[in-house]
Amino acid sequence: MDADRGIERLPRGRHGLSPEFVAQNQRQRLINGLTQGLYEVGYQKTTVSLIGERAAVSKSDFYKHFESKDDCFVAAYDAAIDRIRGQLVAACEKAGTQPWSQHMSNAIEALLELFAAEPALASIALVEGLRAGRGVYDRYQAAIESFVELMKQAEPPAVEGTQVPEATDEAIVGGIAAMLGRRVLAGETDDLTELFPEILEFVLGAYLGAEEARRIVSAG
What we know:
This protein has helices at residues 19-41, 48-55, 59-65, 69-95, 100-117, 119-126, 134-153, 168-185, 196-208, 210-219. By secondary structure, it is mostly helical.
């Protein structure tokens, strides 16, 4: 992922842009610069100077937006989670009134495509968030819980004669995060989309049973 993905660098010299726009542009580029730096060299080697270099923002301007590298990290982590949540919500909304299984299919496909296209985003969300200390780890747990709530809102169907344990939603979300996190840590992001059938069957099977899950996945 380019550090300036979706955020254009400002033209040099006079440009007539408002101070508020300039500040927001710089802040977002710094967030992107940190995210890319983490993916390339890890947390310890991602210095304020490196972040500024990736973002084309001076060190003095960095401190106008963030108190420290840790402060920037928290902002970048929150932005990553918001981005992921937005993608999942949009994917489910696209399914409209289709069956719950289609909502899950859309969401999983969108998640895998996003992470495959932007491994730096996947890394900060799934790997670095577990390494950065208690404050960010608490955010990681809160993110997992928010994704659990999204799954509950989709209202999986009740299957006659079966009772799904209350912790199923959390186990599924946590399991997917752990599985993808291992792939990201190993640098195996190019083929993440190939996991789609396996993950979809895993999710559907927990609610609909293994046989019905296989049938839906096989039917495409």
